[in-house]
Amino acid sequence: MANRAGQRRWLQRQEKDEYVKRAKVDGYRSRAVYKLEEINERDRVHIRGKMIIDLGAAPGGWSQLAAKWCQHKSDIIALDILPMDNLADVEIIQGNFTDNNVFEQLIRCINGREVGLVLSDMAPNISGVSSVDQPKSMYLAELALDLARQVLSKNGNFVTKLFQGEGFDEYMRVARACFASVKTRKPQASRPQSREVYLVAKGYCGNAA
Ligand SMILES: C[S@@+](CC[C@H](N)C(=O)[O-])C[C@H]1O[C@@H](n2cnc3c(N)ncnc32)[C@H](O)[C@@H]1O
Hints:
43% of the residues lie in helices and 23% in strands. It is of the alpha/beta class. The chain has a seven-stranded mixed sheet, sandwiched between helices. Helix 6 packs parallel to helix 7. The termini are far apart.
C-alpha cells in the first residue's frame, strides 16, 4: 500500500512539474535535460569535436541534448542498465556499469577515440535509508570518475551527480587533484528537497590523486 501511495504521489508531482511539461513540449525524453542544459550554459562543459560518454543515460534526455550539441560531428556513447530507445548518432550499451565486463565493453567501444566529456547521471534505486543509499550512490560516482580518469583527453571535462553525505568531501579532494577546476552546481531543475548536486570538473590534467 505504501508503495502505491508513493507511486500516486510521484505521478501527481510529475503532472504538476514545470520541467516535465517543458520536456514534453520540447520533445525531450526526460526533465533531467534541463539540468545539463543549465550546467553547460554556465560552465561550457561540451568540447566541440570530441566524443561524449553518457553514463546512466536512460531514458535519454542528456543524450538527446549531447546529440544536439554535436550535430553529427562527434560520437556519443550512452550506457544504462535499463533498455533505452534508439537515438540518432548515439551508440547505446545496455549493462550494469558496476559489472567489470560492462566497463571493459565500454572501453572497447571507445576504442581510443578522443573523449572530451564524461557525464554521469547514474543514481541507484533510492530506499530512503541514507546509510544504504549514500554508499551506493558514492560507488557509482567513484566508478564514473575512474572511467573519466581512464578515457578523458587532456583538458577534458567531467560532470557527475553526487549526493551530499558521507564520502562527499573525499570525492571532492580526489577530483580536485586531477582537474584544473572543480565546482558543485545545483541546477534549477534539481528538486530542492533532493540532496543531489552535480560536480562539474573541468580541465583534466592527469592522475595526480
Ligand atoms: C536519473 S536517471 C538518468 C536520466 C538521464 N540523464 C536522462 O537525461 O534521461 C538515472 C539512471 O541511472 C541508471 N543507473 C543506475 N544504476 C546504474 C548502473 N549500475 N549501471 C548503469 N546505469 C545505472 C538508471 O537505470 C537510470 O536510468
